[in-house]
Each structure stands twice: as structure tokens, then as C-alpha cells.
UniProtKB/TrEMBL annotation:
It comes from the Bacteria. Coiled coil: none annotated. SMART domains: HTH_MARR (SM00347). This is MarR family winged helix-turn-helix transcriptional regulator. Residues 20-157 form the HTH marR-type domain. Keywords: DNA-binding, Transcription, Transcription regulation. InterPro entries: HTH_MarR-typ, WH-like_DNA-bd_sf, WH_DNA-bd_sf. PROSITE patterns: HTH_MARR_2. The lineage of its organism: Bacteria, Bacillati, Bacillota, Clostridia, Eubacteriales.
Amino acid sequence: MCDEIKIDCCKRTDPPWESPQVIPAQIRRVDNLIFRKINQFARENGVEQATPMHGWIIEYLYRHRDAAVFQRDIEREFSITRSTVTNILQLMERKGYIERRSVPQDARLKQLVLTEEGIRFHENTIRSFHQTDDYVAGLLTEEENTELLRLLNKLRDALK
């Protein structure tokens, strides 16, 4: 087998200093380019200034806006410590994305509520993701997109 690999390697026409076009490397390159596109659309929609964790927490609050959400819910949902969540929420409050409101049954508890700015941030973030998705999907035919998703899902399932 080693002899077969050596013979096969010798038949290659690539210069020796070029790395092989292996699947993980190509996926990483494409991932980097897609993230650049996400960042471009985020800038265009005015949502590049927040951290990913802010975005995830805002998305969580948006999905649960009809329920009372407290700091402990964020701690549990994202598996992060109380002190870390406290710092994140304080910064989000200073940026105007959330408010902490007292609840009548327990003055110690503060309900987390998205502000209008937080809702706008969420909607602009989602818009950025949709724009990126539409842009990337538009680079391939419908059949190619279907096949790419099928293959990526197959790889993901096999790598779990």
C-alpha cells in the first residue's frame, strides 16, 4: 500500500509546496468566506457591534418574550456562570438591548425584557443571516444546493 501511495504521489502534477485540496481544508476556507459575508451583511444592517453571546441571548429573549425570563434561565440555557451572565447582562443593559424589571412577587428577582432596540437588533441580525443564506444559495443551482446539503448532513451525522 505504501508503494501504491508513493507511486500515486509521484504521478501528481501539483508543485510539492502546494497543500492537497482535502475536504476539511476546503470546508474551512468556505466557512471563513461565508463568515466574511455574514459580517458584511451585519455591517450593512448595523448589527456588527455585538458579540455572538449577545446575539444568542437576545434571540433567546425574543423567542421567550411572552414568558418571564430571569438571569438564572440564561445561566441554565447557555451553561455559563452567574458572574459571567451578570457581566454580559450589564453590558447589554448599557447598550440598550435589555431592561431588568422588578417582579411584584419577589423584589430580588429581575425579569429580563428586550427593549425596542433589542428587538430591532434581533430583526436586523436575522435579516443579515437570511441575506447571507440567499447570497450563498444563489451561487449554486437548486439541485446543487440540495446535493450539498445532503452531503453536508451526511458528513455531520457520520462525524458525530
